[in-house]
Write a structure and sequence with these properties.
2 domains; single chain; transferase; Methyltransferase domain-containing protein; 4-stranded antiparallel β-sheet; methyltransferase activity; Methyltransf_25; 7 helices
């Protein structure tokens, strides 16, 4: 999970960038999945936790929650949001824990920040080592074969520092193990605009490839990318939730 300068430089606006995300619905869905597939324990670890919004929801649901991230400014904000949680600056592709976790999460497609297959394998190995028997690893992913390079999502948000416009989209060249996450942020204040552009190298995998990497270590459930309903993946949609039980 290499450091990304835009997340460090704009860490104060990260929550604004994610203002359209329903953290409560995502956290509640995974809580339900843990009840269905997990071991019943309450030790939770959030990979690439950012400023800690998911950790906050798990704490409020009664979990003993913790988080890790590679960006220290994000962790500083997470510690303010969740003073009762433990946070550590670690790479999700090579981390350790003091006690095994019962539930490990990785939201917002952050699993792709592993950037290449070898590091994705290392991430999976680290998760397996950190999970208790019967523990659940839950994350969402995008299938490289379904990416529309012309598609993007965007939203605006007001802030005392100005009007912010955010847009992001996936780009896959059609071959290889890397895709790009393209980000654009524009801040307008008193008629003056400032724009940031960034491209993050992300690992590109199909769901078949991802399942093959997981299956030696986990019982793998692939579900529709719907945080309101728990449904099996339909086999064609390009986004899915993976619920993986440690064997």
């Amino acid at each position: 999970m290499p450091g990304t300068a835009i997340y460090t430089d704009l860490s104060g606006y990260y929550d604004l960038m994610c203002a359209d995300i329903d953290y409560r619905a995502q956290s509640h869905c995974v809580h339900r999945l843990h009840k269905l597939f997990g071991n019943g324990g309450n030790r939770h670890l959030d990979l690439a936790c950012g400023t800690g919004p998911h950790v906050r929801h798990f704490l409020d649901a009664g979990y003993q929650s913790s988080g890790l991230d590679i960006n220290q400014p994000m962790l500083d904000r997470a510690a303010v949001r969740c003073p009762e949680a433990e946070f550590s600056r670690q790479d999700m592709c090579g981390f350790t824990v003091a006690q095994p976790a019962d539930l490990i999460t990785c939201f917002l497609y952050s699993i792709h920040y592993s950037a290449e297959i070898a590091r994705l394998q290392a991430c999976i190995a680290s998760v397996r080592g950190a999970l208790a028997t019967g523990g659940l690893f839950c994350f969402n992913a995008v299938d490289k074969h379904t990416i529309d390079n012309a598609s993007f999502v965007a939203h605006e948000a007001n802030h005392p520092d100005g009007l912010f416009s955010f847009s992001s989209g996936w780009h896959y060249a059609g071959a290889g193990e890397q895709q790009l996450l393209k980000l654009r942020i524009e801040r307008t204040t008193a008629g003056q605009s400032q724009t940031w552009h960034d491209e993050h190298r992300m690992v590109a995998v199909s769901f078949a490839e991802l399942s093959k990497l997981l299956q030696p270590y986990f019982g793998v459930h692939v579900l529709e990318h719907d945080y309101e309903k728990i449904l099996p993946w339909n086999g064609t949609s390009g986004n899915a939730i993976f619920a993986c039980v440690k064997l």
